[in-house]
UniProtKB/TrEMBL annotation:
Domain of life: Bacteria
Originating species: Piscibacillus halophilus
Transmembrane segments annotated in the record for this chain: 6-24, 36-57, 63-96
Pfam families, per the entry: AzlD
Keywords: Membrane, Transmembrane, Transmembrane helix
Protein name: Branched-chain amino acid transport protein (AzlD)
Source taxonomy: Bacteria, Bacillati, Bacillota, Bacilli, Bacillales
Amino acid sequence: MIMMTIIGMAIVTAVPRFIPAFFMGQTTFKPWVNRWLNAIPFAALGALIFPGVMNVIEDRPLIGIAGGLIAAVIALFNVNVIFAVLGAILTVFLLTM
């Protein structure tokens, strides 16, 4: 019974992910829709990261904000994302010393 539940959950999860892959290749959108769809990953990433930036240190949210700003500035130079992450980590580390 447990195995059937796991298989059922896998099917229910996989089907909505595979259906768009088959139909999106045949669909064309207007340019403004494509721009909007391309922005969704960045908006989702921001929504996931921002609460963590505010809670790096509970009683000192400005340290997290400083780390986030440094990461944003580094990202503006179009370098690899790992350098933005390392810059934010270094900033938070130095401000908490």
